[in-house]
């Protein structure tokens, strides 16, 4: 089985979106450099951010996200983001009526089913879990191996929390990655078992 990583860009005060459910400046670091992050050339980061992020993206086999994220992004137009092979959507609702069933997306009910399906699809590759409500549930269930965050120098004050509704203490190991890029601090924490 591959590693399970909880991930998102996050404000200094712990939010992945503002009170209006918008990322605001949280993705500014993705256009603050001169090194193209993907083939589109739309995303340009510092060399440090490129080396760290590209290597991580290349290991991801599956992303697990909630239905809210899927709806917010309009299902990424049926194309998983960042060149990822497959997306597992945690939802109690069926796919949209006009959804292309050939698109590499699975719709499952609950985090247990999502993680089973994600591990099946990812094999030895990384399973990325989008931070927020679903990510917090996966984290609270003890299914996350690593917490990765791109901390952006902004205080949002309120909004969607990185760990969703997690309200119990969970200890992490000391960070094994601390890297400074343009407008971002990349951090990675192994989860203490």
Automatic annotation (TrEMBL):
Superkingdom of origin: Bacteria
Coiled-coil ranges per UniProt: none
Segments forming domain Bacterial bifunctional deaminase-reductase C-terminal: 111-178
Name of protein: Dihydrofolate reductase family protein
Source organism (scientific name): Arthrobacter gallicola
Taxon lineage: Bacteria, Bacillati, Actinomycetota, Actinomycetes, Micrococcales
């Amino acid at each position: 089985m591959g590693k399970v990583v909880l991930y998102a860009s996050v404000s200094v005060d712990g939010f992945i979106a503002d009170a209006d459910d918008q990322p605001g400046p949280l993705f500014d670091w993705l256009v603050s450099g001169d090194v193209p992050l993907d083939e589109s050339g739309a995303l340009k980061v510092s060399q440090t951010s490129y080396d760290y992020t590209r290597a991580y993206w290349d290991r991801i086999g599956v992303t697990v996200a909630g239905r809210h994220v899927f709806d917010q992004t309009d299902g990424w137009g049926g194309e998983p983001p960042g060149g990822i092979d497959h997306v597992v959507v945690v939802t109690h609702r069926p796919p949209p009526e006009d959804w292309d069933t050939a698109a590499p997306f699975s719709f499952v009910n609950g985090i247990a089913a999502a993680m089973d399906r994600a591990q099946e699809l990812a094999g030895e590759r990384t399973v990325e879990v989008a931070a927020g409500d679903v990510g917090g549930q996966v984290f609270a269930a003890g299914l996350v191996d690593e917490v990765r965050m791109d901390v952006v120098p902004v205080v949002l004050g309120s909004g969607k929390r990185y760990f969703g509704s997690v309200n119990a203490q969970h200890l992490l190991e000391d960070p094994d990655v601390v890297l400074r890029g343009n407008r971002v601090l990349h951090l990675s924490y192994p989860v203490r078992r």
